[in-house]
């Protein structure tokens, strides 16, 4: 067997906050023990990439965390994957043995959970460099590169029938929305739902609510351009808060006889969490927050909302155990029980990745799929 060497390939490197990415030749080190190196096939741009690119301080960095690809090489000790396997990357992994992985109540792996420092979990180093200078990771995935290295616990094998140029969406946004509706809220038939923010995440919550037989799905977005696609994903009533003469939670309360059974925050704004909480009903109203706020991380709300019996909860990746649960979502897609193709508004070659950032910043896309 030939030893696995360094690969030099193209990557879109972010050198500073909000600065256009630059195509660079990067060195990608061989996978370390329990890691795999992946040839990225497709990667979609998620709002969290844009939020982190605009507001975080770790640079130079390779973003990207919704991706599909093919295993190029495997590190020592890896038995789960072979060269040539088709995989999805996971921004939150599953080690299968920690307290959370062995509990049915959680997907918050203690070993391979969300990585925030731009390093690899196992040795706190990077696998990318330019002329020897380290380039940081994002969520231990970094898919805006022709090749990337991830921990074997941060990837999942997918069916050979699943189209890689579509299913990359299951790596984050779509799964997060469906899981919030099904696993976290466990929406029951005939219930009323209010969804704040109708991007890929909010529309996936709507699809999940519709499939559970929700009687009314109220979608709230400041962009009226979202109303058409929202209908296609099950939204029965579209509200643009800017068009209302009263506050939006009052509108929701009026049309749902005192508040929705469930409300979801899919914007990434803590003030909207408060609004979502105000729009669900007393007694059993449940608010699920999914967004990642860019500013003001603290939530401020009146204690009385909780005394009246409302619950506020959140979830990462829709509460799914990524390795265990994602293959069944892909199977549902292959059986045409859930749709995702309609969420892909743009396809583009890797060289045009900055165009995807522009479209998302301007609110002109749902998902842009970047073909490597
Ligand atoms: N009220 C209602 N809708 C809003 C508001 C607001 N104050 N501000 C923005 N929006 C709408 C936007 O017009 C857009 O349609 O929220 C939607 C957000 O969609 P995307 O930007 O496409 O984001 P998405 O990928 O769906 O992610 C939503 O979840 O995973 C997190 O980081 C992600 O915080 C982000 C959120
Ligand atoms: Zn674990």
Automatic annotation (TrEMBL):
SMART domains: PKS_ER. Residues 16-370 form the Enoyl reductase (ER) domain. Pfam families: ADH_N (PF08240), ADH_zinc_N (PF00107). GO terms for molecular function: S-(hydroxymethyl)glutathione dehydrogenase [NAD(P)+] activity; zinc ion binding. One of its GO terms (cellular component) is cytosol. Its cofactor is Zn(2+). The keyword Zinc applies. Coiled coil: none annotated. GO terms for biological process: formaldehyde catabolic process. PROSITE patterns: ADH_ZINC (PS00059). Keywords: Metal-binding, NAD, Oxidoreductase, Zinc. Homodimer. Belongs to the zinc-containing alcohol dehydrogenase family. Class-III subfamily. This is Dehydrogenase. It comes from Lithospermum erythrorhizon. The lineage of its organism: Eukaryota, Viridiplantae, Streptophyta, Embryophyta, Tracheophyta.
């Amino acid at each position: 067997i030939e030893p696995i060497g360094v690969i030099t390939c193209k990557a879109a490197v972010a050198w500073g906050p909000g600065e256009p990415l630059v195509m660079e030749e990067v060195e990608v080190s061989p996978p370390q023990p329990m890691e795999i190196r992946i040839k990225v096939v497709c990667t979609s741009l998620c709002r969290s990439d844009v939020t982190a690119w605009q507001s975080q301080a770790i640079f130079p960095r390779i973003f990207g965390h919704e991706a599909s690809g093919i295993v190029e090489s495997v590190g020592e000790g890896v038995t789960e994957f072979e060269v040539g396997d088709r995989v999805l990357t996971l921004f939150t992994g599953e080690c299968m043995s920690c307290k959370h992985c062995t509990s049915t109540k959680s997907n918050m792996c203690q070993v391979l959970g969300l990585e925030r420092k731009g390093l690899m979990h196992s040795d706190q180093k990077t696998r990318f460099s330019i002329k020897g200078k380290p380039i940081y990771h994002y969520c231990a995935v970094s898919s805006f590169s022709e090749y990337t290295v991830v921990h074997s616990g941060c990837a999942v094998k997918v069916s050979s029938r699943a189209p890689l140029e579509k299913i990359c969406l299951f790596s984050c946004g779509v799964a997060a929305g469906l899981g919030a509706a099904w696993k976290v809220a466990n929406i029951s038939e005939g219930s009323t739902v209010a969804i704040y923010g109708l991007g890929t995440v909010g529309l996936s919550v709507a699809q999940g609510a519709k499939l559970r037989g929700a009687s009314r799905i109220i979608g709230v977005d400041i962009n009226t351009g979202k109303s058409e696609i929202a209908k296609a994903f099950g939204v029965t009533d579209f509200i643009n808060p800017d068009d209302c003469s009263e506050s939006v939670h009052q509108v929701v309360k009026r049309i749902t006889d005192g508040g929705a059974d469930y409300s979801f925050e899919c914007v990434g704004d803590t003030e909207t969490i408060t609004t979502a909480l105000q729009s669900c009903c007393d007694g059993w109203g449940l608010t699920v927050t999914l967004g990642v706020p860019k500013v003001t991380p603290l939530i401020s709300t009146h204690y009385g909302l909780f005394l009246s019996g409302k619950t506020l909860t959140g979830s990462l990746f829709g509460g799914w155990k990524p390795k265990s649960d994602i293959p069944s979502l892909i199977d549902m897609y292959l059986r045409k029980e859930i749709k995702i193709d309609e969420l892909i508004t743009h396809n583009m070659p890797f060289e045009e990745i900055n165009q995807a950032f522009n479209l998302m910043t301007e609110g002109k896309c749902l998902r842009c799929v970047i073909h490597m």
